[in-house]
Amino acid sequence: MSVTISSEVLQRMLAQAAASPEAEICGLLLGGGDRIEAAEACANVATDPARAFEIDPTALFAAHRRARSGGAAVIGHYHSHPSGLPIPSPRDAAQAMGDGAIWVILGGGVARAWRSVELGGFVEEVIGCV
Ligand SMILES: [Zn+2]
């Protein structure tokens, strides 16, 4: 399985992560199917942003509302691991709903994509740059 993303969108996410060495950054992935068309940076409202992320619910709600009125679908989200590897943490696994959402995780200057296919579980997706 794979997801496609434009190199420009990918570079922007990596730059956002690199610019925040102390706190996890996060945002929404918009597009359709397996294609990430845009990444929307959102505030991380977690109480401990150095070790966790929580997408600003206002931004999430607004994105879903736009999708319902014809905008791009919310197909997943991204976040960074400022001092870790771009693989799902136990905390991430606890939030995996098995809903098919794409999780892009940024760490160590690279991005890896995961899909939540079961409660608490992920499979890795190859990232195809277009
Ligand atoms: Zn994480």
Ordered list of secondary-structure elements with their pairings:
Layout: E1 2-5, H1 7-18, E2 26-32, E3 35-42, H2 57-68, E4 73-80, H3 90-95, E5 102-107, E6 110-118, E7 121-129
The structure holds zinc ion (ZN).
Task: Describe this entry's structure for a reader.
Keywords: Hydrolase, Metal-binding, Metalloprotease, Protease, Proteasome, Zinc. InterPro entries: JAB_dom_prok, JAMM/MPN+_dom, MPN, VirAsm_ModProt. By secondary structure, this protein is of the alpha/beta class. The protein has 3 helices and 7 strands. It has a 7-stranded mixed β-barrel. The chain is globular. Bound molecules: zinc ion. Zinc ion is lined by residues 79, 81, 89, 92, 105.
Helical residue percent band: 10-25%
Question: In DSSP terms, counting alpha (H) and pi (I) runs of 4 or more, how many helices?
Answer: 3
| CATH architecture classification | 3-Layer(aba) Sandwich
List SSEs in N-to-C order: EHEEHEHEEE
**Distinct small-molecule ligands in the complex:** zinc ion
CATH superfamily: Cytidine Deaminase, domain 2
GO cellular component, one term: proteasome complex
Domain MPN: 3-130
Protein name: Proteasome lid subunit RPN8/RPN11
GO molecular function, one term: zinc ion binding
